[in-house]
Amino acid sequence: MTKKKQPPENIVIEGVTEEGKQFRPSDWAERMSGNLATFKNSRIKYSPMLQPSVNESGNKCVLLDASLKKTNPELYKSIMDFAQNNHLKICDNDSLDKNEQPDE
Question: Does 10-95 carry CATH code 3.30.70.2340?
Answer without folding.
Answer: yes
